[in-house]
Amino acid sequence: MRALLRRLTSPSFRSKVFLASFICIGIPVILSLSIYSYLTRDAVEEQAMQNATKALDLTEENVSHILDDMLNVSNFVQIDSELNTILKNKSNMSLSALENQDYTGFLEDRQIQKTIEDITLLGEKSFVTILLENGKYYTNYTTAQFDPYSLYDEEWLNKLEKVNGYETYWSGVEPTMLQYEKIQNPYQLSVGKTLRSNNKEIYGYVIVTLLETKVRTVLMNKNESEELMLMDGNNTILSHQDPQQINNKAAFVAQLNPRQSSQIVELQGQKYVITQKELTFNDWKLVSKVPYKQATSNINSIFSKVFILLAVSFAVFFVILAYLMRRITKPLRYLERVVRKVQGGDLSVRSQVESKDEIGEFSQSLNNMLDRVNMMITEVSHTHKRKRKAELAMLQAQINPHFLFNVLNSIRMKVFRFGDKESAGMIQSLSKLLRWTIDNQDDQICFRDELGLIRDYVKLMNMRQKNKVTLLIECTDQTNDQMVPRFLLQPLIENAIIHGLNQGEGEIRIEADVNDYQFTILISDNGAGMSESALARVNNTFGNATNKTRAASHSGFSSIGMTNVYERLQLSYRKKPEMLVKSKEYVGTTIEIIIPLGGEEDVQGNVS
């Protein structure tokens, strides 16, 4: 026992993990099991009431939709101005006059009949009766099923006369008035509205009737243990899964708390989850009654499974914990020794842990980090050598500066005085190129200035050779301020003129665009192109350009070849650009330069 206490209180990693596991997992599990019986009861009841409320909300939506259809039909008859105008005129006529009305009156009757038939096509089928004060009526059913005059005998018609304006009166559940429907549909629900003239006098009524079975169908689409019913404000059952319950009083509603939508009530020695939902357009409500056992059976089952799972997991955890501690800490101790050697300066040491878990991944990451450190040390040294070679190549590409520039300027002025403007322009373009080579000490310039250099260079080449080259530049305005290495494009244009076009006529196109991620430049010509083997050799040189800077072409103005352009691109940016050559024999060649944006680094090593 003492040895166990010493191991638990020792500063070893294994003991700390074991203790932390017990504190973080064991104690919460024990506490969960101890208070489970107390919390489960409240949680089960709350969840059961929430489930009942959600189910009743869906039923209420469906029932409201049916009753809304009835209300919409009555509203349409009451507020449609054209229909009301016709009905008012009809109500002012006697029945004898209506029987002897002309063809226009007949068409008006047809219009009224068609209107009430059309408005009942959508939704549940309802029966509409428009009853005027003079005894004239309109229906969407045959009088063989029901005599509309019988409505005058209904007690609730007197109550309808007391309804003001656009208010409605819901009659509640009644025996079905339609003879052909009484057997299968013994009950009906009706809603009525008054039709009033401008002086608020009643000239007619509109009554919309729906068979109660339409609502009962919605109430029956639930689980067998749930009892659903539609009640009015006096707790009289208007619709129920059991037709025998209709028109009975629901006495248990008096025991409910009206402030709670869902509650648990004990009725006749049995507990029920009872939920009620008020309808929005009248004092009716939906009531759900589910036995407590059935409402909580699924939830109790889930809680029981969780209880068993927690208990078993807690027991198994402590059985395997000690074994896992040894397996886990053994490679960690080995990695500790490796890290200490690295800390002492030995970068040749490597971890031999090859497991597939996180420790193995850490071991592999440590080895990769050491390899990367060694590679970066070599790369830094190698980069300095490459940068020095590129700088020497650039120095070799320049000619003696100021003396030659001044002499050329003097020659240009003399030539211009003698009227040879073409030669003077040629010397001026050459002077501009020399000025950029001599006076500009920055290795990177704006892309706008680089395009200016290319224009002067092509102008010089066109003056040198008999066949002219057409230069087309299609670059977006956003590219003007992008920084690029000086003389980036000139060697590529030179290759296009000399090798692609063979110093003959042709077209060279420069396209450039920039987005949030990269700056793209395309240099294309319509020259002789290259074969697939030659193209493969050219692209292969870019991957081995480090030692080929001195071997670049020296046939043009800048004395820099394509490999030097690629090398300077790699040295000018921290995120390495791409340079791809695409060519098709007898069609032309395209060089694509892709410069990633963000973290640009100039050739001096400064990050912009």
UniProtKB/TrEMBL annotation:
GO terms for molecular function: kinase activity. SMART domains: HAMP, HATPase_c. The keyword Transmembrane applies. The keyword Chloroplast does not apply. Keywords: ATP-binding, Cell membrane, Kinase, Membrane, Nucleotide-binding, Phosphoprotein, Transferase, Transmembrane, Transmembrane helix, Two-component regulatory system. The chain crosses the membrane at residues 20-39, 302-324. This is Sensor histidine kinase. CDD domains: HAMP. It is found in: Cell membrane. It is a multi-pass membrane protein. InterPro entries: Bact_2-comp_sensor_kinase (IPR050640), HAMP_dom (IPR003660), HATPase_C_sf (IPR036890), HATPase_dom (IPR003594), Sig_transdc_His_kin_internal (IPR010559). Residues 326-378 form the HAMP domain.
